[in-house]
Amino acid sequence: MARILIVTGDAAESLEVLYPYQRLLEEGYEVDIAAPARKTLRFVVHDFEPGFDTYTEKPGYTWPADLAFSEVDPGAYAAVVIPGGRAPEYLRNDPELRKILKAFFDADKPVAQICHGPLLTAATGGLEGRRVTAYPALELDMQAAGASFQDTAAVVDGLLVSSRAWPDHPVWMREFLKVLRSRG
């Protein structure tokens, strides 16, 4: 079965890493998690509480990274998953990660992104002229990246599948799996 890469780092949203990781394993894919370094990553939980204007953040799960970005061979993977959380805010500055993501777009491979994950694809220029969704607070960022923003559970634009946040997981993964299956 094909291999799928998940790119993430500390302060990624726990559910947005672990749900696709487990769902793809369940489907029979081999899944590797890459981060800036091989280490135990510390994820977070973003939740919504009455009285707060935005989401709150609590400590989440820890999980080992299988690879450092510098060890990733994009050609060894059929697709990439880009979780959200706070991690994309600093990961977009990582030149190794930008090279990895550009390689997936250049090779026309499936890309799944959720929540703040599109900040990474925006940093590679991969959203120009595309239709996407993301965490709704990123609408202006998506437009600045040249994308057409749609506030809906999932948007499929060719091989790019995007979603708003973890409550949309079932729709996001259903659409991403359709894209993966269409590629054999």
Summed up:
Helices cover 30% and strands 27% of the residues.
Task: Please characterize this protein's 3D structure.
The structure is a single chain. The radius of gyration is 15 Å and the shape is globular. The protein has six helices and eleven strands. The chain is an alpha/beta fold and 184 residues long. It has a seven-stranded mixed β-sheet with strand order 5-2-1-6-7-11-10, with helices on both faces. A two-stranded antiparallel sheet has the order 3-4. Strand 1, helix 1 (14-26) and strand 2 (30-35) form a beta-alpha-beta unit. 45% of the residues are buried. 30% of the residues lie in helices and 27% in strands.
Q: Which helices and strands appear, and what pairs or packs with what?
A:
Layout: E1 3-7, H1 14-26, E2 30-35, E3 40-47, E4 56-64, E5 67-68, E6 79-82, H2 87-91, H3 95-106, E7 111-114, H4 118-123, E8 131-132, H5 139-144, E9 148-149, E10 154-157, E11 160-163, H6 169-182
Parallel strand pairs: 1-2, 1-6, 2-5, 6-7, 7-11, 8-9
Antiparallel strand pairs: 3-4, 10-11
